[in-house]
Specification:
heterodimer, A: 358 residues, alpha+beta, Elongation Factor Tu (Ef-tu), domain 3, six-stranded mixed beta sheet, six-stranded antiparallel beta barrel, globular, B: 126 residues, OB fold (Dihydrolipoamide Acetyltransferase, E2P), six-stranded antiparallel beta sheet, three-stranded antiparallel beta sheet, 9 strands
């Protein structure tokens, strides 16, 4: 089990630490509901240093990225970020990721912690372009500062105008006195904010300065449990739950990052799937009757026939309602359709709704 | 952490308080802390006879689902209905307003096998 650079700080703050993707990670500090609210209404800091970062460098970097990812990376410019996925050859997804264009020949890929090795092997397998691929995950820390007050809370730490940064762009600069911090206007919460990438040796210094600067804005440390409830309210997919090696990006509602303007791994089959239509779809639903949906619960119709499976579910802290994501046969995917979740052998009524959940 | 000496405990983190031929059951302070914010207490076994160590309901936190086990055999006589609207009472007052069920004791002899506060406390290392 690995520790993040800030492990002692989390323990001292009283975080509950749990093993996650090979790391001891803070899952909760004050309590998931309170932390969730902090991010929705003010600003909170997640240590997500377990995430993986690769640097791809070389003349063929863009060609390699175009080959392995589903989105069209040729549309990136320096300082621009793109959400994308790595399709496998069987119709599923190896991982979802962010692609950062640092310059014309240099890109950073940010991948899920549990898939670092898998992704590295996968991308390397297609590297006939002579691209230099460097895994910098172990020396890189990543803090996500999220919430409506994030820009204000951090502004005193940098000359970069944070509030002027557009969503899915980044800048490299001096932050909290540390050079070469990558400041990215991204996040996994739907609350706005920034993700900060820097070398591990600066982790403690940057963490402390963030909390000093953010004190008057009510900044708090936030655990992975609230990260999950926040992303779920937005309907953001979590790899391993909502998408995996067996789910197609089109079934998962990721058609918007699947661009057939170029050739990529399995693009022909996916194009055919788009043409013919998918047989199941990832939907959002909310419970009508009392019950909380959970990962892997069965979804049935009014007669009890299996029509799908829950992939994520929780009691939404912001909405005070139980919501979930799951795959259903396409006939049941329309908004407003009545479905039932099999909870402890009881059929509990739910209905298909759009996400973000409101 | 607080473990009232007048209560009996189980290794599954329930507490039980005997009141004549009846007993009140809930989960311990340790249990509610481990679970985190409790959002749903699902108990629909009122009126049923349930054996010692069998499941009488489920408690759900934001991230987890846990079964509730009978400390002793008995019939579920009453569910604490205020938990329907305020499940967080289990967090704020686990031994008081956060009680879960009242039961009619069927085997008083079962009580002898429960843990004392001291024994439970040493088990959870608190």
């Amino acid at each position: 089990m690995k520790n993040v650079a800030l492990n002692d700080i989390h323990t001292d703050l009283g975080a509950k630490m749990v093993p996650f993707a090979g790391f001891n990670m803070p899952v909760q500090y004050a309590g998931v509901n309170a932390e969730h609210e902090t991010v929705r209404k003010a600003v909170g800091v997640f240590d997500v240093s377990h995430m993986g970062e690769f640097i791809l460098k070389g003349e063929g970097a863009l060609d390699l990225i175009q080959k392995v990812t589903s989105n069209d990376a040729s549309r990136l410019f320096d300082g621009k970020i793109q959400y994308s996925c790595l399709p496998n050859e069987e119709g599923g997804i190896v991982d979802d990721l962010l692609v950062y264009r640092i310059d014309e020949k240099t890109y950073m890929l940010v991948v899920n912690a549990s898939n670092i090795e898998k992704d590295l092997n996968w991308i390397s397998k297609y590297n006939t372009f002579g691209v230099d691929i460097k895994d910098i995950s172990d020396r890189t820390s990543l803090l996500a500062v999220q919430g409506p007050k994030a820009a204000e809370a951090l502004q005193s730490l940098t000359d970069i105008d944070l509030s002027a940064m557009e969503y899915y762009t980044f800048k490299k600069g001096t932050f909290a006195g540390v050079d070469n911090v990558l400041i990215s206007a991204t996040g996994y919460t739907g609350a706005g904010g920034f993700e900060l990438y820097f070398d591990n040796e600066h982790a403690e210094e940057i963490w402390n300065k963030i909390f000093e600067a953010g004190e008057s804005f009510g900044i708090k440390p936030i655990g992975l449990a609230a990260r999950d409830t926040l992303r779920l309210e937005m309907g953001f997919c979590l790899y391993g739950n909502d998408i995996d090696d067996s789910t197609s990006p089109l079934e998962a509602g990721l058609g918007w990052i699947t661009k057939f303007t170029k050739d990529f791994v399995n693009s022909q089959n996916l194009a055919a799937q788009k043409e013919n239509g998918v047989s199941r779809k990832l939907i959002g639903f909310e419970m009508v009757d009392r019950g909380i949906p959970r990962h892997d619960y069965e979804i049935v119709d009014s007669e009890g026939n299996n029509i799908g499976k829950v992939t994520s579910g929780t009691q939404s802290p912001s909405l005070q309602r139980a919501v979930g994501l799951g795959y259903v046969s396409k006939d049941f995917a329309k908004e407003g359709t009545e479905i039932f979740i099999n909870i402890r052998d009881k059929k509990v009524k739910a209905k298909v709704v759009k996400f973000p959940f409101k | 952490m607080n473990f009232p000496p007048e209560l009996k405990y189980t290794k599954d983190h329930e507490w039980i308080r005997v009141e004549g031929s009846q007993a009140v059951i809930g989960i311990t302070e340790f249990a509610q802390r481990e679970l985190g914010d409790i959002v749903y207490v699902d108990i629909n076994t009122v009126g049923e006879e349930i054996k010692k160590e069998d499941v009488f309901g489920t408690v759900e936190a934001v991230k987890t689902v846990s079964d509730l086990f009978m400390p002793i055999s008995g019939r579920i006589a009453e569910f604490n209905k205020s938990l329907d609207t305020n499940p967080e009472l289990v967090n704020s007052d686990p031994y008081g307003e956060g009680w879960m069920v009242k039961i009619d004791i069927s085997e008083a002899g079962d009580l002898e096998h429960l843990l004392s506060a001291e024994e439970y406390q040493s088990q959870v290392g608190a």
